Amino acid sequence: MLAYIAKRIVYTLPIMLGVAVVCFMLVHLAPGDPLVSVLPPDASESLKQQLLVLYGFDRPYIEQFAKWLWRALQGDLGTSIRTNRPVVAEVAKAVSNTLMLAALATLIGFLLGALFGFVAGYFRDSWIDKAASALSVVGVSVPHYWLGMVLVIIFAATLGWLPPTGAGPGGSEAWKWDWAHVRHMILPAITMSVIPMGIIARTVRALVGEILSQEFVAGLRAKGMTELDVLRHVVKNAAPTALAVMGIQLGYLLGGSILIETVFAWPGTGLLLNDAIFQRDLPLLQGTILVLAMFFVLLNMTVDVMQTALDPRVERS
Amino acid sequence: MLTAAEIREWDGGEPARGAPLLEVKGLVKHFPIKKGLFGGARGVVRAVDDITFDVVPGETLGIVGESGCGKSTTARLIMDLIRPDRGTIRLGGRAAGTPELSLKAFRAAVQMVFQDSYASLNPRLTVVESIAFGPTVHAISRREAVQRARGLLTRVGLEPARFAGRYPHELSGGQRQRVNIARALALQPKLLILDEAVSALDKSVEAQVLNLLLDLKDEFGLTYIFISHDLEVVRFMASRVLVMYLGRIAEIGPTEALYTASRHPYTTALLGSMLSMDPDRRTREAPLAGDPPNPINPPPGCRFHTRCRYAENLCSEKEPMLEATGSGHRAACHAVDPLSGHSRARRTRREGA
Amino acid sequence: MASIAGAPSVPSEKILRSPGYWATVWRRFRRDPVAVGAGLMIVAIVMIAILAPYIAPQDPYKGMTLRRLKPPGTEGFPLGTDELGRDMLSRLIYGARISLFMGVTPVFIALFIGSAIGIVAGYAGGWLNTVLMRTIDVFFAFPSVLLAIALSGALGAGIMNGLISLTVVFVPPIARVAESVTTGIRNRDFVDAARASGAGALTIIRKHVLGNVLGPIFVYAMSLIAVSMILASGLSFLGLGVKPPEPEWGLMLNTLRTAIYTQPLLCALPGLMIFITSISFNLLTDGMRSAMDMKA
Fold first, then answer.
1. Sheet with B240-245: strands ordered across
2. Nearest C-alpha of chain C: how many angstroms from B268?
3. Looking at beta carbons, which residues of chain A come within 8 Å of C230?
4. For an engineered disulfide with A310, which of A139, A148, A240, B139 has Cβ 3.0 to 4.6 Å away?
5. Disruptive mutation site among A7, A9, A316 for chain B (greatest number of B CBs within 10 Å)
């Protein structure tokens, strides 16, 4: 078992390296001068040269990459050109904010999605199924940033029940788990949960339908098992895959939070990314993308390993 | 180089009568088990381990054995669907895949019918298109190929007017297998390998298909290799039988001689496991004990010795070779080899093998 | 000893042809009201996009600040005006063009590239498969939104760059599906039978593999169109895709945000269009999948 985990980790290493390469190259795809955001427009040639050497932009790419990677492995992702603070600090704070939101959203999405999916799969082809399936299709098709806006229109602008933006009265610096702060999370979390809800509902519906149609369920019923117990069996069989999907959705939310965070001005990684792009803050951009991508890769790997651990059918050499 | 056309014209009369049509020498195939960190092989499945036999023109050679003994792998090795690790295959004396005999020409002469009748047909092609595909690869015009296909459909008992335009999922198992046979015959082969071709069919349908195969063999002068785990069917179809065990040949000989006077203990046990139709002759105990051992780690010496009632120390040390025990009859067992030193072997010699 | 080639032939007119695969799929699809409805909706939207110059009442680029942010139902402007005084209805109609274009084109291009990679990897197997799929996996290691935004951010705003980023985002999933389907087909006996008849790899791929593989790949690609539209609009929403003054639904959502408190209905309209189009594509592909699933 441990050997399998070790093997899986080793398999992931080349991918992580590839991810690092892509992250690094992304930034250098950008047309134009990497220094354009730092320099005043009338800077002299010699100043430009000095800064070029200072930032290391004059060295060959391989060398830049190696240096950058080496420092990153030691926890140093450079300094943000804009704020002059270490990138790691900025990203860490943003990640914790996004993580809060994403976790809540995944939880809501999973609970609702599993519920809808289960009900739909159990009462297959009835009106309940159709209704639940309709909801999940809506969930998957709706542009979530638009939904965010709509919710803001309804609940903030029109009804005034919930705040439209921000992370609370003290901003993200002074986060406390009290109602004044948490109420800021409600709308963004619900908005974020819609797509995972749809996907999980669909997956669970298919899973439940498939399990119920298998012969062993007929066998259980013939044995005289109560329906409740049969359901428990179904849940047990469906759980590993459903949880795996949930894990992956969490990963997607972490990486794809930028749209919602823009709508709600939530100070997370998405907003950070947004700023970094528009201000061409390259170190910040590189660092943020790297951290997010790594999170995703590690999350996928964890989900994989857990699924194998939970599924007794998989061979463990 | 023997071209496809030459093979088509060749009536099997040359080389000299009795000379083999197909010669398989020293065929070996080990499948690596990928368990290592980066796919490095950790152990091999010795599916086929040094097989040598001939196929005489006009005969039906039956190949029998338990699941996992390597029969199907052997078939695919002969067809070059799997690359052998070692060994040669000669058709009419010429080595396949060399300048003497191109792989393409070889494939025109040797064809195969698979076990799963549905999986063997492209679900998107009609029956006639599937049959006509082979000839089109060998530079036969589409028109002529389709004509030939329709003719073959008639020949296997499927009326072209009703069947040619059908898709595989619209046919029954038996009908599909007939289509597969027609498809195999479309290239006018000399040798047909039937890999468990009737095993998945209902008994009554099986009988029809077997009779069809016999008719076709006479009509077109074919040679068959008939692979099956069903001993009764093999006895019906084959003129010679080859028994495989764990990747090696245990015994080979004329059908009746093998069935009535088998020499290898495995063959005897296998035949003993055939249930009799006579209620008075019931089988009291299983003739073969234990599970077949693992082809990854075959037992040392004779592979069968762990389940053999005649096993002696010699058997776990030295691997027996195929030795003649009668006219055209050979077995790989120390107990029948007078020179092996096995206690029973001396008795055999006294009986005047 | 008869010769096989001399067997009797049968005239071709007498042969019964069963309905082909696609005909059967179409027949099943036709019976599904939801799928057909979704299909019609998409046709309607496409027609709107194509006929935009003829049906739009006003010029979508001309606006007068005097008329800005008029609510729907205003005289002459059935759906109101945007923040620069341009007619919403006309902008929405013209927006269909760009939004559909940005949604469909990347998927189509990715379909070609991804299928080629996946089919080759699937058929060849071995080290080629490993190399190709591992490279694809690296891109798969990014969540799609992140990758799209990162690429767009790096390349800069604009339609072309947006198309490139989205295409890159969609090639890996399509390649994966293509590889998996091809490998499944590759291992079926009829491919072995085709090899056994002496056909070369290209012939086998052409005649036996493609026909069985393109269907599922195509349906999968179609299911990505909805995602592509949402992503493309999302990019414009962030300011990374289409640039103003082009009418694109996502961009319109962005520029109208300032009016959220004053004219909430106006803000919701472009997103509604995205939603309708996206859900239609999803329902359509669901219907196609059901129709193609012969076992159901």
1. B110-113, B191-195, B223-227, B60-64, B240-245, B248-254, B329-331, B323-326
2. 34
3. 143-144
4. A240
5. A7
Q: CB of C224 within 8 A of CB of C170?
A: yes
Cβ contacts of B73 within 8 Å, gap of 6 or more: B29, B47, B48, B82
Per-residue pLDDT at B210: 92
- Residues comprising chain C, all counted: 296
Residue B24: pLDDT above 80?
A: yes
Question: In chain C, pLDDT over 90 holds for what percent of residues?
Answer: 18
- In whole numbers, what is the pLDDT of chain B averaged over residues? 82
C4 touches chain B (CB under 8 A): yes
Quick one: tokens of A300?
A: 């996928």
Nearest to B137 among C1, C18, C199 (CB): C199
Q: CB of C207 within 8 Å of any CB in chain B? A: yes
C-alpha distance from residue B43 to each of A4, A263, B35, B46, C125 (Å): 18, 58, 9, 9, 21
Interface contact C198-B103, CB threshold 8 A: yes
Cβ–Cβ pairs < 8 A, chains A and B: 3
Of B190-199, B256-265, C76-85, the one with minimum mean pLDDT is C76-85
Give which of A112, A117, A122 is closest to A233, Cα–Cα.
A122
- Chain C residues with CB under 8 Å of A254 CB are 143
Q: Residue C11: pLDDT above 60?
A: no
- Which residue from B minimizes the CA distance to A9? B37
Contact B229, B222 (CB under 8 A): no
Q: Which is nearest to C168 in space by CA: C195, C186, C194, C149? A: C149
pLDDT digits (tens, 9 = 90+) for A237-287: 888 888 888 888 888 888 778 888 888 888 888 888 888 887 777 778 888
What are B291's strand-pairing partners? none
Classified as helix, coil or strand, B156 is coil
The ipTM is 0.79
Task: Tell whether the model's pLDDT for residue A52 goes beyond 70.
Answer: no
Closest by alpha carbon to C217, among C113, C77, C99, C75? C113
- Average pLDDT of C145-159? 83
Structure-token pair, residue B140: 């036969």
Report the distance separating Cα C36 and Cα C283, nearest Å: 9
DSSP three-state, residue A83:
coil
Chain A residues lying within 8 Å of C272, measured CB to CB: 146
CA distance C230 to chain A (A): 6
- Which CB contacts under 8 angstroms, 24+ apart, belong to C79-82? C79/C266, C79/C269, C80/C263, C80/C265, C80/C266, C82/C252, C82/C255, C82/C256, C82/C266
User: Of C225, C284, C276, whose CA–CA distance to C48 is shortest?
Assistant: C276
Q: Considering the domain B4-242 in this protein, what is its CATH number?
A: 3.40.50.300
Mean pLDDT of B227-234: 89
pLDDT digits (tens, 9 = 90+) for B171-203: 998 999 999 999 999 988 999 999 998 888 888
What are the extents of the domains in chain B?
Answer: 4-242, 265-275+298-352
C15's CB contacts (< 8 A; 6+ apart) are B128, B160, B161, B164, B165
Asked if the C-beta of C228 comes within 8 angstroms of chain A's C-beta atoms, the answer is: no
Kindly tell me if the per-residue pLDDT of A18 is higher than 60.
Answer: yes
d(CA C256, CA B288): 83
**Smallest Cα distance from A8 to chain B, Å:** 9
Q: Tell me the pTM.
A: 0.81
Mean pLDDT of B45-72: 87
Cβ distance C8 to B154 less than 8 Å, yes or no, reads yes
Residue identified by tokens 């007017």 is B161
